[in-house]
Each structure stands twice: as C-alpha cells, then as structure tokens.
Amino acid sequence: MTSSKSANSGQTTAVDNKKPQEQEEEIDIDLEAPETEKAALAIQNQFRRFQKKKK
C-alpha cells in the first residue's frame, strides 16, 4: 500500500512540473546597441554553418 501512495505522489509532481509558467519574465535588451547586433550576427552565422553541416 505504501508503494502505491508514493507512486501517486510522484505522478502528481510530474504533472505539476509540466505546467507552463503563466507569468513571463520581462527582459530589457537594447536592440539598437552595436553589441546586440554583433551578437545576433554571430548567432546567425553559427546557425547557418550548422545547417550546412547537417546536409
């Protein structure tokens, strides 16, 4: 009987962890900053390289 109780509580925890957060964290990023633009270009280049390797 004890094992079924722990299994049920484990299932409840798993279900609770799957719920999405209702409040989103607000992030303040200056999209006009030169550092942001450089970072975006670097990420895009890496992604393009990854896509080429994938083919």
From TrEMBL:
Biased composition (Polar residues): 1-15
PROSITE patterns associated with the record: IQ
Highest taxon, organism lineage: Eukaryota
Region (Disordered): 1-30
Family statement drawn from the similarity comment of this UniProt entry: Belongs to the PCP4 family.
Name under which the protein is recorded: Si:dkey-46i9.1
